[in-house]
Predict the structure.
Amino acid sequence: MHRNKIPEKKGTWMEEWHQKLHNNTTPDDVPICEAYLAFLRSNGDQGAYWSVLSNAGLTRSMLESYDRPIRTDPHFFPDKKASLIGEFENYLKILKAVHSGADLQASASAASGYVPGGAKGYLGYVLANSNGHEILPIVEASVEARAELAPVLRNSRDVLYLDLALETVVRSAAERGVGHAGPRAAALIAPLLQNLALSLGDNEEVCYCLKAWQDLPHSVRFGEGFGKDDALRAMAVIERVRRALASVSDYVSQTVGPVSQQFGQAFGCEPWAVTLFPEEVVRGGPAFAVSLVLSAAEPHFRQVAELGAWQIISPASCWGRLEVVPDLHGIQEKVYSEPTVLLVKHVSGEEEVPLGVVGVLSGDTCDVLAHLSVRSRNMHVLFATCYDASQLGDLEAMAGKMVACETTPAGSVKWREADAAEVAAHAAGARQAAARGPIRVNIPKWSGKWVVGMDGFQDGVVGAKSKNLAGLRGRLPDWISLPSSCTVPFSTFEEVLKRRENRGLAGDLAKAIKAVQPGDGAGLALARCRDLVMQTPVPEELQNALRQAMRDGGIPVPEGEQWNDAMWALKSVWASKYNDRAYVSTRKVGINFDDVRMAVLCQRIVPAQYAYVIHTTNPTNGDAGEIYCELVLGLGEAIVSGTVPGAALTFVARKDDMDNPRVLLYPSKSEGMFVDESLIFRSDSNGEDLEGYAGAGLYDSVTTATTVRRKVDYSSDPLMTDPEFRGRLMRDICRAGLAIEQALGSAQDVEGVVDREGKVTVVQTRPQM
C-alpha cells in the first residue's frame, strides 16, 4: 500500500483486509489473496474475485463475520495493475509459507534426533493438527512441546528453529480462534502466558501473571458462569498482564529499533518500513497473541464486574481545546493561553497539572490518592482514565478541536465538539469564580527548641501532621495505635544556617535560590539548592536534643553509622523544600517557594504487613457519607507516590453501614515497597493544607534504612485467599477512619499500617482537601 501510494482509508477493501491481516491472519487469507490476484488479472472483474472465493468456500457473510470484517468489494487501480500483481504474488508466497506449516514440518524433521521423549507425543499432535479448528488443544500441545524442549534448546540450532516454529503455531492458532470466542477466549490466556514465558529471557513478571491467572476459579479461567466478585478479581490480573505486555513491547522496541534503523538506512529501505519494523516484530511475537485474547475476553469481564470503560478520579465538567501529548511530566511547567483538555498517553501520578489545563484524560491508570489525583480534585480539574481503546481513538481524532467534557452519574465521561464562543463563556465564568487574592503563607519563627515532644506540638511550632497526632491521643479506641513521635520544629534549618560556621553555605544557598527562575534552568538551580542543604552540618545541640526526645518518647535511638543515616534523612526532608514538583506547584498559586518552613516529624517505622490510605469523604464523588480506602502490601508509598503502577485493594463503606464494606478493585500492583525496621522522618511544612491549596505530598518523607521495591504475589496473600480475613481487615480500617474523623471533627486523609497480627496503627492524618 505504501509503495503504491494507496491510502489507509476506512471503508475500502484493501484497508479492511489490511486490518484483518494486522490483527489476526488466518488460512482464509490465502484464497482471499488468490481472489484479489484474479480480480487484478481480469482488469477488475468482481465475478472473477467472487468465483475464487466461492471455490474456496468463502461467502460474503463469512468475510463480514471476521473480527476485522471485510465488507466492501475491491477497487481496481488500472495504473497500478502490473505493480500490484507482482506485489501480491510475492505476498501470496508469504501467506502460504505462514499457513502451510512447512516451517514446522522441516524443523521437526531436522531436530528429530534431539527431541526429548516427553515432547514427541505433543509434537506429533501439533504436526497432525496445526491448522485444525480445535484451537485450545493445538495451543496447549504446542506449549507443552516447547516446555519439554526448553532444557535442550542449546543442544542444537535445529531445536531452536523447532521451538520458533512451535511459537509461530501458537500465535497463528490464537489469531484463528479469537474472532468469535468472546469471553471463552479466556481459556487461551493461561497457555498463551506460558508460551510467552518460554520465549522471554526475563520472564519473572509473566510467571507471576500466569500464577495469578491460574489461581482464579475454573469458571473465570474458561470465561463462563462467573459473578461480579470473580470478574473483579480477573480484571486485577488482566491489568497486571497488560502492564507486563507493555514492558515486553517497550523492551523489544528499544532493543530492536536502533539496530533495525541502522540496517534500514544501510540497505536503503523506505523510511516508513524502517519506522514500522520494531512494531511489526512485536505484533509477530508471542506477546501479541496474549493481547489479542485479552481484548476479546476483557469486555465481558468488565461488564460483569460493573466497571464500565471509565474510572473517574476527579469529577468535573470542562470546556477547552483538545491536545494530545505523550506524557504530563515534560509539560507540567507549560502555561496554556487558552482552556485546554489534555489526552495523555502516560501519567505516573507524580506530576502537576499545567496552568490553563481544565481536563486530563488518559488510557493510563493512576492511583486515586496519588499526588496528581489529589491536585486535580483540589483544582476542580477533570481527571479520568479510559480503558476502551476505541473511545480513546475517537477522542484522539478530535485533537485540535474545541470540546466539552462532562462526567455522568453512571461513572463515565461524555464529550462533544464545542464552539469557540461556548468555551470562551465557560472560561470567563471560571476566571470569575477563581478570582481571589494570593494565598498567604505565614512564616513561623523558630520556637527556640531544637526538638519538641508530643506535648509541645502546637500552632506555629509544628505542622498539621504533628498536631493532628497529638490531638488524637486519648480520643481513639484502644485497638487503634499511635506511633511515638517527636518533631524538629519550623524554621530549625534556617536557624542552623545562621550559625557562624555556616555563613558560607548560607550565602551560597541565597545565590542558588535567586538563580531559580521559571524555565528549563529551574531544575538545575533547584538541584544546587538541595545539594547545599545536604552539605549543611547538623549541630551537636540538635543531635543531642533529638536523641533525648527519642528516648523520652520511646523511640529506639540508633548508634554509629545508623545515626549518620538518621541525620542524612533529616537533611533530605529539609532539602525537599527545593524539589521540582513543589516549586512548580507553589509558583502556580503565587506562593514564594522559599517561604516554606519545614518541620520534621520523627517516628519509629512500625513493622508493616500492609499499609492503607483512608479518605473519610469519598474523593471520587464527594460523598461525605462514604469512606474510601486503599490497601497494599508493604509501605503506603506504593499508593501515594504514584511510582508503583496498578491498583491497590480499593473499598468503600457507608458510615451508617460499617459492617459491610464493598470492594471496588482488587490489587493489581506488581511491586510493593518495603523497608527494614528503622526510623522515618516526615515532612510537616507550613505549605501543606493551606486554605484553598493542598500541598500534601509535595515534600518528602525519608526512611533511615533503604526502601526497596520487590515483586509481590497478591494471589497467594490472605487478602485474596481468605475472604473472612479480608472482610475483617476492611471493616477495621473503615472504622479507624470514622473514629479519626469523629475525634478531629472534619473529613480526614489518613495513612497507616497493619502489622502481621492485624494491629491497626495510624501514622499520620491531615484535613482532607
Q: What stands out?
A: The two ends are 55 Å apart (CA to CA).
